Amino acid sequence: MSLIAYNNELAIHLHLRDAKFYNYLNQSDCIKIEGDSRRLDSLRLAFNVLQVPTNMCNGIFQTLSAILWLGNLCFEDVDGERCQLTKEDEGIIDILSSLLGLERENLKQVVLLRQINVRETLQKSP
Question: Where does the record place a coiled coil (predicted)?
Fold first, then answer.
């Protein structure tokens, strides 16, 4: 059973879609694993027993969701040196900024600019 079917409220909060949607997951033949929902319950119970604060649990799940979404970014080459985001990527950036609590434009810069450390000086290039 997918998380979307199992816990729709959590899936909406995490902006989750079917597992086949994510590039990081759909490259294998093991998208469905028996007992996933039971294991999720066990994990959430373990967090509760260990008194992990709710906001920290949410942050963990949001980070995992963001990693899945990052795998779906498809950059377009501009001139062999620079790249830009596709229309679909713009929507993904919105979701990522929501999940990670980052400003949209700052996140765009992070994914589009390379940072190179040269003699302890940080250089940014497209």
Answer: none
Domain end marker among 72, 97, 115: 72
Could you identify the residue written with the tokens 């996140």?
107
Mean pLDDT by 10 residues, the chain (126 residues): 67 91 87 82 94 95 97 86 87 97 94 74 63
| pLDDT of 71 | 95
pLDDT at position 5, please? 56
60/80 same-domain check:
no
E strands in the chain: 75-77, 83-85, 114-118, 121-125
> How many CB atoms lie under 10 A from the CB of residue 96?
25
* H or E segment and range at residue 100: helix 87-100
Helix (H) or strand (E) holding 49: helix 36-49
Do 84 and 47 sit in the same domain of this protein?
Answer: no
Shared domain check, 85 and 59 = no
Cβ-based neighbours of 107, under 8 Å, separated by 6 or more: 93, 96, 97, 100
